[in-house]
Design a protein that fits this description.
The structure holds 3 protein chains of 3 kinds.
Chain A lengths: L9 H20 L10 E7 L6 H20 L3 E3 L4 E3 L1 E7 L4 H13 L5 E4 L3 H14 L3 E3 L5 H4 L6 E3 L4 H17 L7 E8 L2 H16 L4 E9 L7 H9 L4 E5 L2 H13 L6 E3 L7 H7 L7 E4 L8 H14 L7 H19 L4 H10 L1 E3 L7 E3 L11 E6 L3 E6 L17
Helix pairs in contact in A: 2-12, 3-4, 6-7, 9-10, 12-13
Chain B lengths: L2 H32 L6 H19 L3 H22 L12 H22 L14 E4 L2 E4 H23 L1 H11 L1 H6 L4 H23 L11 H14 L4 H21 L5 H15 L5 H9 L2
Antiparallel strand pairs in B: 1-2
Helix pairs in contact in B: 1-5, 1-8, 1-9, 1-10, 2-3, 2-4, 2-8, 3-8, 5-6, 6-8, 9-10, 9-11, 10-11
Chain C lengths: L1 H7 L7 H16 L7 H26 L8 H16 L4 H23 L6 H19 L9 E2 L8 H23 L2 H11 L1 H6 L4 H27 L1 E2 L1 H4 L2 H15 L5 H19 L4 H15 L3 H9 L10
Antiparallel strand pairs in C: 1-2
Helix pairs in contact in C: 3-7, 3-10, 3-12, 3-13, 4-5, 4-10, 5-10, 7-10, 8-10, 12-13, 12-15
The chains are: A alpha/beta, B mainly alpha, C mainly alpha.
Chain lengths: 420, 297, 323
């Protein structure tokens, strides 16, 4: 090891200094990827590696598809340029790391001179990124972060495609209530909540609890706890849930924990009248890992490929052509529409001025959207308010939409039949 | 909670201890002999999991057979890694920063290679055995976890036998006690180190292959296990099979039962709190207790 | 004057160049916002300052004193949260950073007293345990936001140059502290402890108090770095600032740059702040691979880090300058 208390000789230190200066110089000479007259630069920051890798990848695929389709049609009409300009996507993988996520958003807003930025899968990454749009005055749309905390800060440049997670909670409660009213479940059932310790889990839990508070007598929450992500064993937690003697088991978890927990749930021979893992349920990887164990689990999600809209069918077809598989759960759809609503805002604005685009986004309305309700509009705080769909896994790999009634593709099965 | 529920929880904890033990044995061996804290352990476990997965998907090979096959394969890989990288490390009685970082670098490389080859999907192995349960008296347990426990037990017994009955085992014990003295009495340190490293990685690969049947995994797999291995190392001491078993048992019991009294979100805090507590009271880990016992004989 | 002569002095070497180079670098950096460098460059330099500070901090404990901590993120995170909470109450940021340093020092005492008697790898493992425990606790503590993270809302508008200069000031402070320690009796004591602790205590050095002192200084610097970062990012989360990965990066910086040296952490910080981002941007799939390979090569070929390679290279007779 080097001697620490003797400083280095002249050359090594000057070498270091020169190295530092050269790096600095190199960075300065970095050309501004300016908004050239021939393309609209869109920065995209999503996780392709790390904990949130899979959904991040699906969202990127949605964005890529939308950009490709728009460019195939010639691009986005920009009145000030007098012609259609193609979209140019500059992508950064933030590795599911918040500091990197925020940093890349800064980079794309400053150095790449992006006209707008799309990014932030998962609330933590979204929150970290959301500090930057107001700072740099660049419009930012998140197709993957739903926490209302992001949009309650009076930010002027942030927009979100996802309805807040607490509404997911209240929609779930509403759905269960509708099942009670249909006579399939008794009134006043006990509910056990096992929530992942993240913004998502906590907001979901709050949504459910608040709804129940407003409708006394509907359900009883007899157990509610949070758990840390990535645990190899949920025996203790499941034992607590068992002891709570609930009728309905509502959890909220990432895919890995959903698989681990539900495997142990089945192995422990546990039973409930209804089971849900929050926004998890119909994923292909889950079915691969749990076989018929996923049957009858229901989930509240922002979009389902079974929605009976023609544009949804078209999207599923195009997505399959582009990637070789059908869209998994909801991730790609919100990302796809985020590009489309951005494109329509740019057209409305008529130029590439960020302020004009931001103002256009505020009043933008994407008709023919893939999302439930077929129209996306940003609320006064920047967040969309589309309704959720509740889907239920059916035997044989089928997934039915069971709520709301007007979008339903099948009947809800409640209470769940006991296994084997 | 009824007595039956308590029994269930304790049994679940014991089975979990089996899983923890099987994954820690590899790290223990390598540390004991070579004083290297193998941070790449998680990476090799991850590769073991993919190994079993590929054999299952392509060769339709029973994942348990895959786990047994993983051992010799990863033994070979371990010896290769030793020959390529580890033997250049300076020899020492203490873990050096260099060894820590070398293994960490290897872990990073393994992770990235896995990303490139398999992508970031969560994979899992699903067989009819996945949900199979065994009835033992009034308790129902997962068959797979029981099997994992059995494998752990067998590995620890085999490990202990090797230590006590073979020339290799004698060399290992000599080196654990004192590297220099071992060299003086003629132990071939190079060869022993190479075999040890191979054994350690062999166990890691086997553990990973076994765990592939229980959990879903991706290239990031192994991190929570790695962290718990550290706790087990401290609890049980790095130098014996019974130490590993004891450490795994204490940790599993503390985690599973602890959750019954504390909000589930604090589970990891229990594990680490335990670690820190033990270290405060026994700076040499629980092994210090054992050392005292032997010395008084 | 003592400070200058301490930096310039040393063991009989000619002194002026040792002051001139760091000052020139400082002047060049300080001028960058003035000459209108773009926001992205300022951001990169700012990140470099933060990482370099944490690297210098770790180096004081790990490089000078030989105590390898794998859980340094705990001080970084505690500093971040302290500053965040204080700034939200309206205190002047610099006072908040002082608060960060104070909390970090207190934490270092609580961690150090029990853990410094541990031998072997147990110290490193214990530091991981402490850091992870704090992370889990902070994730559950709703008063600081828990798993939702914590936001900083400042009354004054954001001015990037402001943050840039704070970062520059911090890293300069860290560097000066590092130099002063290395040239003082305290530094000699630390080196003695690193090289041979029993012998050091034989000649009258109290290992525990010296280690605690080094730990305290290192923690204070790391805590302030966390605070300065938190103010810039305006949002912190336990899984980010207390992450095991953060601890690892903090120790990678001095190791890759040159452990135990003065400029090693600086070099490492530059690599981490600037080069790393380019790597990730250009090779999103392979940057872990490159890092790992780099780490392996450095450990096997030149444990002295990049600086070690440079020094060996410059020992070539024709290039020798030193008399």
């Amino acid at each position: 090891m080097t001697r620490s208390y003797q400083s280095l000789g002249f050359f090594p230190r000057s070498f270091v200094v020169l190295l530092a200066l050269a790096t600095v110089q190199g960075c300065k000479r970095e050309d501004k990827k300016a908004v050239t007259a021939d393309a609209i630069t869109i920065g995209v920051v999503l996780p392709l590696t790390g904990r949130e890798a899979k959904p991040g990848q699906y969202q990127k695929e949605g964005i890529d598809l939308a950009v490709k389709q728009i460019n195939q049609a010639g691009g986005v009409m920009v009145k000030a340029a007098g012609k259609k300009l193609p979209l140019k996507e500059i992508f950064y993988d933030d590795g599911s790391d918040q500091a990197k996520s925020a940093s890349f958003v800064e980079r794309t807003m400053s150095s790449d001179n992006a006209t707008a930025v799309i990014g932030g899968y998962s609330t933590a990454l979204g929150e970290a990124e959301s500090v930057m749009p107001d700072r740099y005055k660049v419009p930012w749309i998140t197709p993957g972060a739903a926490a209302s905390a992001i949009f309650n800060r009076g930010y002027q440049w942030a927009f979100g495609m996802l309805t807040p997670t607490d509404i997911l909670g209240s929609t779930t409660a509403e759905f269960l209530q509708s099942v009670v009213e249909a006579g399939k479940l008794r009134k006043g059932l006990n509910v056990a909540l096992a929530l992942e310790n993240t913004d998502h889990g906590i907001d979901y839990g709050n949504g459910i609890k608040q709804w129940i508070q407003k409708h006394p007598g509907s359900f009883n929450v007899v157990f509610s706890e949070t758990f840390d992500l990535g645990s190899p064993d949920f025996s203790g937690l499941l034992q607590k849930v068992k002891s709570a003697n609930a009728d309905i088991f509502l959890s909220d978890a990432h895919l890995q924990d959903y698989i681990t927990m539900h495997r142990q749930y089945i192995q422990n021979g546990m039973k409930h009248q209804m089971i849900s893992y929050g926004a998890r349920g119909p994923e292909t990887d889950a079915r691969k890992a749990l076989g018929d164990g996923v049957d009858y689990i229901f989930a509240g999600i922002w979009w389902s490929k079974s929605l009976p809209y023609p544009q949804v069918k078209q999207f599923v077809k195009d997505y399959k052509e582009a990637t070789g598989r059908e869209p998994d759960s909801w991730y790609a759809a919100t990302a796809y529409d985020s590009v489309r609503i951005l494109a329509s805002a740019i057209e409305t604005a008529g130029n590439l001025e960020r302020t004009a685009i931001r103002d256009a986004l505020r009043t933008a309305e994407l008709k023919g959207s893939l999302l439930p309700g077929q129209t996306v509009r940003f609320g006064p705080n920047g967040q969309a308010q589309n309704p959720f769909v509740i889907v239920q896994n059916k035997p044989g790999g089928k997934v039915d939409i069971v709520f709301p009634k007007d979008a339903a593709t099948g009947e809800v099965i409640a209470p769940i039949p006991t296994r084997g | 909670m009824a007595a039956l529920d308590w029994l269930n929880v304790v049994v679940a904890a014991v089975l979990l201890a089996g899983i923890y033990a099987v994954m820690s044995v590899g790290m223990t061996i390598i540390y004991g002999v070579m004083k290297i804290v193998n941070l790449a352990h998680a990476g090799f476990m991850m590769l073991g999991a993919y190994f079993a997965y590929e054999l299952f998907e392509r060769g339709h090979l029973d994942p348990l057979v895959g786990a047994f096959l993983a051992f010799p394969v990863f033994f070979g890989i371990g010896r290769l890694v030793y020959w390529l990288f580890v033997r250049w490390l300076p020899v020492s009685n203490q873990p050096t920063l260099g060894s820590l970082l070398l293994m960490f670098g290897i872990w990073l490389v393994l992770q990235n290679l896995a990303y490139l080859v398999w992508g970031n999907e969560d994979r899992s192995i699903f067989t009819p055995r996945t949900f199979l349960t065994t009835q033992i008296g009034p308790i129902t347990i997962s068959t797979l976890r029981l099997v994992a426990f059995a494998v752990a037990l067998v590995s620890l017994v085999v490990f202990e036998l090797v230590l006590r009955r073979t020339w290799y085992g004698r060399s290992v014990r000599a080196l654990i006690q004192s590297r220099y003295a071992g060299q003086l009495v003629g132990v071939d340190t190079r060869r022993t180190a190479s075999l040890t490293f191979g054994l350690g990685i062999g166990f890691a690969g086997m553990a990973g292959a076994l765990l592939a049947s229980l959990y879903s995994f991706n290239p990031d797999f192994g991190r929570p296990f790695l962290i718990r291995s550290f706790v087990i190392i401290v609890l049980g001491g790095l130098e014996s099979a019974s130490g590993v078993a004891l450490g795994a048992l204490v940790l599993a019991l503390a985690e599973t039962i602890g959750i019954l009294f504390v909000p589930a979100g604090y589970q990891l805090a229990i594990s680490f709190g335990l670690l820190v507590l033990v270290l405060l009271v026994l700076p040499g880990g629980l092994a210090q207790l054992f050392a005292k016992r032997y010395r008084s004989a | 004057m003592r400070v200058v002569s301490a930096i310039a002095g040393g063991l009989g070497r000619p002194g002026w160049i040792h002051v001139a180079i760091p000052l020139a670098l400082l002047a060049a950096l300080a001028a960058t916002p003035w000459i209108g460098a773009e926001a992205n460059l300022l951001r990169l330099l700012f990140i470099t300052f933060i990482w370099t500070t944490t690297g210098i901090a770790w180096n004081i404990l790990g490089g000078f004193t030989g105590q390898v901590s794998f859980g340094f993120a705990v001080f970084y995170g505690l500093g971040a949260y302290t500053a965040a909470i204080l700034i939200n109450t309206g205190i002047h940021p610099y006072l908040a950073f002082a608060g960060s340093a104070l909390v970090a020092v207190l934490a270092s005492l609580m961690v150090g007293v029990p853990t410094f008697r541990l031998r072997g790898p147990y110290f490193a493992i214990a530091t991981i345990g402490v850091s992870e425990t704090v992370r889990v606790i902070m994730s559950n503590l709703s008063v600081t936001g828990g798993a939702s993270g914590y936001r900083i809302v400042e009354a004054t508008a954001f001015r990037q140059a402001d943050h840039f200069y704070t970062g520059l000031l911090l890293v300069s402070l860290a560097f000066v502290v590092s130099v002063l320690i290395s040239r003082s009796k305290f530094g000699l004591a630390l080196t003695a402890i690193r090289d041979d602790e029993p012998a050091a205590s034989d000649v009258g050095i109290n290992p525990l108090t010296q280690k605690l002192a080094a730990h305290g200084v290192a923690a204070a610097l790391a805590g302030m770095a966390g605070g300065v970062y938190a103010r810039y990012a305006a949002f912190i989360h336990p899984h980010g600032v207390f992450a095991f990965n953060t601890s690892v990066y903090i120790l990678l910086i001095p190791v890759i740059g040159g452990i135990g040296t003065l400029w090693g952490p600086v070099l490492g910080g530059v690599i981490f702040g600037i080069v790393e981002e380019q790597l990730v941007a250009s090779f999103p799939q392979a940057h872990l691979l490159i890092y790992g390979a780099l780490l392996i090569l450095i450990i096997l070929l030149e444990p002295g880090g990049i600086l070690g390679i440079v020094r060996k290279g410059l020992r070539h007779p024709r290039l020798r300058f030193n008399p």
